[in-house]
Amino acid sequence: MLTHALFFVLGLAVLVLGAELLVRGASRLALSFGVSPLVVGLTVVAFGTSAPEMAVSVGASLAGSPDLAIGNVVGSNIANVLLILGLAALIAPLLVNEQIIRQEIPIMIGASVLIVVLALDGSIGRGESGLLFALVIAYSVFLVRQSRMASRAAVDEFAAEMPSDSKWDRHWSVQALLVVVGLVALVLGADWLVDSAVAFARLFGVSDLVIGLTVVAIGTSMPEIATSLIAALRGERDIAVGNVIGSNVFNLLAVLGVTGLVSSGGIPVSEAARNFDLWVMLAVAFACLPIMITGREIARWEGGVFLAYYAAYLAWLVLAAQEHAALEQFSSVMLGYVMPITVITLIVSIVRHNGSGGTNTG
Q1: CB 72 within 8 A of CB 220
Q2: Which of 14, 158, 165, 235 lies at a CB distance of 3.0 to 4.6 Å from 37, suitable for a disulfide?
Q3: DSSP 8-state class, residue 205
Q4: What's the pLDDT tens digit per position in 215-259?
């Protein structure tokens, strides 16, 4: 057990280190070739921070643990919004760029709806996985073409914001090496993490799905957590939101797409995930839109609501895993009281915002 715990912690550490190297190298490599900040932020950084989910889900699928693969992605997307944005909003109210509201969130919601629809028959087949991968390529191409409208001044401004105290990684060859080393670290860390997580699941009698939805999901979301919290602390609050939304899109399209393609039979989706967790992920995606529309920001109290819901979600998973007697009562309270109160609060906020003419721009 001690050995499993050691490799679990070590796997998380190597994953985070690998993601950091990958993001650093890829970001600087993109700037070396004059790519716009839009592409760097929504593709390079989003893919880099989603790389642990990619490595873990592919590794879990190849290791014969499909529940861990799907649970990791679904759990990470839920954690990205409720946990990460909740924590970041508590640090400082998160101002949301209009493009994120107009374009990125609808794309995330659309991808979430697509995953739920594809999974309804109990699996995401290889053909469907190919569709997901084709969509992420199309999304990336769209962002590249969109970025050509950005002025060279914007690229220069973004480059100027990069730390200038390091000279050792200015050459493109060093940047490319960082990308390769980061990818190797991600694969190695993912292997350790999956093996130890499956061992823990069997040891404590907890299903692979629950382990993937909780411990592994939070662990592979560490790069997003670090990126968003540091961005919030530095006042770069738009980055904190964009990182989460972009990572969720890549998790759904790229991670599940590649995972399904490398698996001979696609990705089996358990009944538990189809009946509950996928719908929670979809609800969380939709929850972003009304909250961000009201004043174009995530206020501290809304961040607190996000965190409270994430705590409630984890509590439900624990009670369900133990088949606890309090599960039915807990579910009734959440569905009968807490959810309606939240919906009413959001509706009132939107009505008040529209009534004031939307003058609050955050």
Answers
A1: yes
A2: 158
A3: T
A4: 788 877 877 777 778 777 777 666 678 778 888 999 999 999 999
Contacts of 67 (CB under 8 A, 6+ apart): 207, 208, 209, 212, 268, 270, 273
CA distance 200 to 350: 45
Q: pLDDT digit string (tens) for 206-217? A: 777 788 888 788
The single-letter code of the amino acid at 50 is S
230 is written with which tokens?
A: 């540091």
The answer to whether residue 289 sits within a structural domain is yes
Q: Is 264 helix (H, G, I), strand (E, B) or coil?
A: coil
Pairing of strands 297-298, 94-95: antiparallel
Element (H, E) at 82: none
The tens digit of pLDDT for each residue in 105-158 reads: 899 999 999 999 999 999 999 999 999 999 999 998 888 777 666 555 555 555
Any domain includes 183: yes
Show the beta-strand stretches assigned E in 149-256.
Answer: none
Contacts of 94 (CB under 8 A, 6+ apart): 85, 88, 232, 237, 238, 240, 241, 297, 298, 303
Q: What share of the chain is helix, strand, coil (3-state, %, to 5)?
A: 80, 0, 15
* Domain assignment of residue 195, yes or no: yes
Name the residue range of residue 72's domain.
2-162+169-355
Structure tokens at 361: 């721009």
CA atoms within 13 A on the CB side of 266: 17
pLDDT tens, 81-111?
999 989 988 888 877 777 778 888 899 999 9
CATH classification at residue 230: 1.20.1420.30
Query: What is the crossing angle of helices 278-293 and 300-322, to 10°?
Result: 170
Give the Cα-Cα-Cα angle 337, 340, 343 (nearest 5 degrees). 145
Assigned token pair, 24: 């650093």
Q: How many CA atoms lie within 13 A of 26 on its CB side?
A: 24
